[in-house]
Specification:
By secondary structure, the protein is an alpha/beta fold. It has helices at residues 19-30, 42-50, 84-91, 99-106, 121-134, 167-171, 191-194, 197-205, 224-236, 284-299, 304-312, 341-348, 387-397, 407-421, 443-460; strands spanning 11-15, 34-38, 54-55, 68-71, 95-97, 111-116, 139-143, 160-164, 180-183, 216-220, 240-245, 254-257, 260-263, 270-274, 322-327, 330-334, 354-359, 361-362, 377-383, 401-405, 427-430, 434-435. It is built from 15 helices and 22 strands. Helix 5 (121-134) crosses helix 10 (284-299), helix 5 (121-134) crosses helix 11 and helix 10 (284-299) packs antiparallel against helix 11.
């Protein structure tokens, strides 16, 4: 647990009592702060009360003695409409920060690596942590990835915090200047929360806030938004800038070309690893992740052979193109983390032919942008609230589909057709391009259910599930 010594005996409120919110409340209490907590959800308030926290309605209580509210990044504080507590706090001059800001104020002697982007940041964050650990470095990995940062053991001088940063968290983290800051890509997502695309881009750009030499900016240049940010940073020249690309050469950076990861950060364009030799980093999207992780770890001072060796042993992430079973040559891949079309695109580009399970609560962008991959889809199986919307879209693309409503039915029907047709390379792919909340508590539960259904199907054929390790990966938001 991180010691928040500077909060001792000070009144502080925690707004939002999910996993990170409760971890924050515990860390503050253990550090001697006077803690008040609130959540709009009665069940969350009850759980906090059971732990002995003072539950105080921040929508109506006297806040005048507070200087700080630790805010759950998932609760709107600006767009599309600020929460009433945020409005009250700002009127009183109370700062809104997230738990990562508390970490930054407590751990001033360690190094900070921050990773953001619409897609791929979880894979990249975990891969960087894996490489650092394999090299014997002291590193703590967390943030938006799922591990609350205040549950870290004390880090101190010589250690490194590797933090996945969402756009929401970047807006609420003010004092950390990242020694190495990574921006992978930007595509439309969470636009309502940022007041449109301009606000979303501005939030992502905060990853480079206050960077100066010898700090390093690692930035993808495969999309227009990031190219503009790269050009702006290069024009100012405040920090070392290493561009990365999955699409070909970039001078002075790290990129994928001709099946190799190439390091040109020293101007020598050295081939460092054959990408086919990284079994958990298949697909163009993962080449960008690999380039980013390589550049980051080189910037952190690790020798190239150590970086490459660790990349080859990376196991991947659950729910991100995770191979959960094989049966008679058919692969079953859990890509439940693909909650928007851009994330699903990465999976559609990796497999062929595909028996595609999709649907749930659709994002504003629907399936736009996936048209060019429909020749890979043998048949689609629709679930959830988006079933009819996606059926109309598939009709327009000339793709055969079956309405299944629920994931168990879709998995059984997809498996049945794939096993009957026995096409080379066949993949039953759960890549929903949707949020999970219409039928599941989160994308993890959706992915776990899919894996369980697959295990049942494989077991019914008298076989073990096969390779249940993690395959290729891709993230969102």
């Amino acid at each position: 647990m991180i010691d928040l010594f500077y909060m001792q005996e000070l009144p502080v409120a925690v707004m939002g009592l999910g996993k990170s919110g409760l971890a924050t409340a515990r860390a503050l209490r253990d550090s001697g702060a006077e803690v008040r907590v609130w959540d709009d959800n009665p069940a969350s308030r009850a759980a906090a009360e059971a732990e002995g926290f003072a539950v105080v309605d921040l929508t109506s209580a006297d806040l005048s003695d507070l200087t700080t509210i630790v805010w759950s990044p998932g609760i709107p504080h600006t767009h599309p409409k600020p929460h009433p507590v945020a409005e009250r706090a700002r009127a009183l001059g109370i700062e809104l920060i997230c738990d990562i800001e508390l970490l930054g104020r407590a751990e001033r002697d360690c190094a900070f690596i921050g990773i953001t982007g619409t897609n791929g940041k979880s894979t990249t964050t975990t891969l960087i942590g894996h490489i650092l650990a394999a090299a014997g470095c002291k590193a703590a990995v967390g943030g938006n990835l799922g591990t609350p940062v205040l549950t870290f053991d004390p880090i101190g001088s010589g250690g490194t915090c590797v933090l996945e940063m969402s756009s929401y968290q970047l807006e609420l983290t003010h004092s950390i200047t990242f020694d190495i800051a990574v921006l992978l890509n930007i595509t439309p997502d969470h636009l309502a929360r940022h007041g449109g695309m301009e606000g979303y881009v501005a939030a992502k750009k905060l990853i480079f806030h206050r960077q100066t030499w010898p700090r390093t900016a690692v930035i993808g240049v495969d999309d227009e938004h990031c190219r503009k940010i790269h050009a702006g940073l290069a024009a100012v020249g405040d920090q070392r800038i290493w561009p990365i690309s999955a699409q070909g050469p970039v001078a002075g950076g790290v990129y994928a070309a001709d099946g190799w990861l190439v390091d040109d950060t020293d101007g020598e364009a050295v081939r460092v690893v054959e990408l086919s030799g990284l079994p958990s980093l298949l697909g163009t999207h993962n080449w960008q992740n690999a380039a980013a992780a390589f550049a980051t770890c080189k910037a952190a001072g690790l020798p190239v052979p150590a970086i490459v060796a660790a990349m080859a042993t990376f196991p991947g992430l659950a729910h991100r193109q995770q191979l959960v079973g094989t049966l008679d040559g058919v692969r079953f891949v859990n890509d439940s983390k693909a909650t928007n079309a851009d994330a699903t695109e990465k999976a559609l580009a990796t497999f062929d032919p595909i028996y595609w399970i999709l649907g749930g609560q659709a994002k504003d962008t629907g399936l736009n942008g996936l048209e060019g991959y429909m020749d890979r889809v043998r048949h689609a199986f629709l679930i959830g609230e988006a079933q009819e919307q996606f059926a109309a879209w598939l009709d327009a693309q000339g793709v055969a589909y079956t309405r299944c409503a629920t994931l168990d039915v879709a998995t059984a029907k997809a498996a049945g057709l794939a096993l009957a047709e026995r096409l080379d390379g066949a993949c039953v792919l759960l890549s929903p391009a949707c949020a999970s909340w219409d039928q599941f508590a989160n994308f993890e539960k959706r992915g776990e259910a899919f894996a369980a259904y697959v295990a049942g199907i494989v077991g019914a054929h008298g076989q073990a599930p096969g390779n249940t390790g993690n395959g290729t990966s891709g993230g969102v938001a």
